[in-house]
TrEMBL record:
It comes from Sclerurus mexicanus (tawny-throated leaftosser). The gene is Cmtm3. Its main location: membrane. Residues 23-149 form the MARVEL domain. This is CKLF3 protein. InterPro entries: Marvel, MARVEL-CKLF_proteins. The keyword Transcription does not apply. Keywords: Membrane, Transmembrane, Transmembrane helix. Residues 155-175 are annotated as: Disordered. Coiled coil: none annotated. The keyword Glycoprotein does not apply. The lineage of its organism: Eukaryota, Metazoa, Chordata, Craniata, Vertebrata.
């Protein structure tokens, strides 16, 4: 009688829909998850309040953060080399931080009465979530910016082989 094969990581099922643990444990994965959750909460709060005119920005940021989360989870960033993923993520974070800060200031100034708060006085007002999201996106773009700078310094200090041989040829011509 043959022994059944042990269940390996390639077993199909609901587990294949979950992101890998290394992404959830990484700083980038945690930031993307926090951005997605905060954007969704803000989107729901804006829909439930009088400030529904601001709902489009959190919806777009939620969808973009969710897309990048699953793109990193399924390693699309390694498969599609034509798109520079860190720069795309940096631009998304910068614009999200600016937009969340702007709509939070607008919500504070325009909807400061008690009736416009998302769920009454039981939870935080919706614009507080916007300021928290601004901080999370700012942390993310700061970290991404540092990664970009490190990458660009490495790229500029290591000349490609073709350019190196051209430089050597020009040095020998000048003698």
């Amino acid at each position: 009688m043959e022994e059944p094969e042990p269940a390996g990581p390639a077993q199909p099922g609901l587990r294949s829909l979950l992101p890998p643990r290394e992404l959830l444990r990484s700083r980038k994965g945690q930031l993307l998850l926090a951005e997605s959750v905060l954007s969704f909460i803000i989107f729901i709060c804006y829909i439930a309040s009088l400030a529904a005119s601001f709902m489009m920005a959190p919806l777009l940021e939620f969808l973009l953060a969710l897309f990048l989360f699953f793109a990193y989870a399924s390693k699309l960033n390694e498969k599609f080399k034509g798109l520079y993923w860190p720069l795309t993520d940096f631009l998304r974070c910068v614009t999200a931080a600016i937009i969340y800060f702007a709509i939070s200031i607008a919500a504070v100034s325009k909807y400061s009465d008690g009736a416009s708060k998302a769920a009454g006085s039981v939870i935080l007002p919706f614009y507080v979530f916007g300021f928290i999201a601004t901080i999370v996106f700012a942390i993310d773009f700061y970290i991404t910016f540092n990664d970009l700078v490190t990458f660009l310094k490495q790229g500029s200090s290591d000349p490609p082989e073709g350019r190196k041989s051209e430089d050597e040829d020009s040095d020998s011509d000048s003698d």
